[in-house]
Specification:
Blueprint (H helix, E strand, L loop, with lengths): L4 E10 L4 E3 H5 L6 H8 L3 E3 L8 H15 L9 E5 L10 H9 L5 E5 L5 H14 L6 E8 L9 H4 L4 E11 L4 E9 L7 E3 L10 H5 L5 E3 L1 H22 L9 E4 L4 H11 L10 H4 L6 H9 L8 E8 L3 E8 L8
Parallel strand pairs: 4-5, 4-6, 11-12
Antiparallel strand pairs: 1-7, 2-3, 6-7, 8-13, 9-10, 12-13
Helix pairs in contact: 3-4, 8-9
Length: 334
């Protein structure tokens, strides 16, 4: 029996026009361009402005572009998963809102929240639905409006995050391309180091929680950095070893853009050169679930059918993981 794999057959991304630079941040909090760049590698990030604008607007723009680019009709889509930590509302799911805005009338959908690892979790889930023959066309959106949960009086977090996202179309293939393997992990004890204190069922929104500024990202930077450096690197090496891949076999590492030092540490552990690593953190910051699809979108023109690609991410929870896939088509090389 011919094996069916799930392949990414199209990629599109969208970021807001407004750019928040390090120089502007210098006027908002006690920081400098040098302080930010040295610790994170970030120079600027995109911010979604406008009343009533949310993550669904980012996801809808990316999805509209994806459908047009792949010549796919909205009604052909069977399923949509939106990977996000900043949903438009507690309910309904942002995936449902995107479906309505784009016209995915035959697709059912839901949101996936595994912090910054949500996108690779969602890609793995989508691949299983396709491998079993349950669905033919699935869209996975990775998008976040992080500016909605960032305290711009705290330099520890406000310099890191930006807004943006992307969407991939996943379809079945019998060729030697597509998703080959995934290793996904989590450790709930890490939640004390990275979380949002209020707004959930344990601590619902109240006057007190708003006054205490508890609806923003809380992060203990050193603890998160230490765990991320070790685990994101380890899982990337693990998936290589599991699939008998040597460093020279890997065409591209697509790492979550959390911190330049974490990215560099992961590449070193894998034994791959900087030229094999997709990096755009300096221009977008950490868009959480938007980082990996934005990278694939920017590098699409450089990708060749059959390229060995490792996706790797780490997020709050803690969550982390890696996906090994072979790229399914040649980019529009210039």
């Amino acid at each position: 029996m011919t094996k069916i794999r799930a392949a990414i057959t199209g990629i599109e991304a969208w970021v807001p026009d407004y750019i928040l630079t390090n120089q502007e941040l210098e006027t908002m909090v006690d920081t400098t361009d040098d302080w930010i760049t040295t610790r994170t590698g970030i120079k600027e990030r995109h911010i979604l402005k406008g009343e009533g604008k949310g993550t669904s607007d980012i996801g809808a723009e990316a999805t509209k572009g994806l459908l047009k680019k792949t010549n796919t009709k909205p009604e052909e889509i069977d399923k949509i998963i939106c990977a996000t930590v900043t949903p438009d509302m507690q309910f309904p799911a942002t995936a449902n809102i995107i479906s309505d805005k784009v016209g995915l009338v035959n697709a059912y959908g839901y949101d996936m929240n595994a912090a910054c690892s949500s996108f690779i979790y969602a890609v793995s889930i989508a691949s299983k639905y396709i491998e079993t023959g349950t669905y033919k066309k699935i869209i996975v959106v990775g998008a976040d409006k992080m500016s909605s949960i960032i305290d711009y009086t705290k330099r520890e977090t406000c310099v890191i995050f930006g807004d943006g996202g992307g969407a991939v179309l996943m379809e079945p293939t019998t060729e030697d391309v597509g998703v080959y393997d995934a290793i996904l992990r989590s450790d709930g004890s890490g939640r004390v180091h990275l979380h949002q204190k209020a707004g959930g069922s344990v601590k619902p929104a109240s006057h007190d929680t708003v006054d205490a500024r508890e609806h923003y990202v809380y992060q203990e930077g050193q603890a998160v950095f230490k765990f991320a450096v070790t685990n994101m690197a380890d899982v990337s090496v693990e998936i290589m070893e599991k699939n008998n891949l040597k460093s020279e076999d890997v065409n591209w590492l697509v790492p979550h853009q959390a911190n330049m030092r974490i990215i560099e540490a992961t590449a070193r552990r894998m034994g791959i050169k900087k030229e094999q690593v997709m990096i755009n953190i300096e221009r977008y910051g950490n868009t959480t679930n938007g980082t990996i699809p934005i990278l694939l979108w920017e590098w699409e023109n450089k990708l060749n059918k059959g390229d060995n690609i490792i996706l790797s991410a780490f997020g709050g929870g803690f969550t982390w993981g890696s996906i090994y896939l072979k790229w399914a088509y040649n980019g529009n090389h210039k």
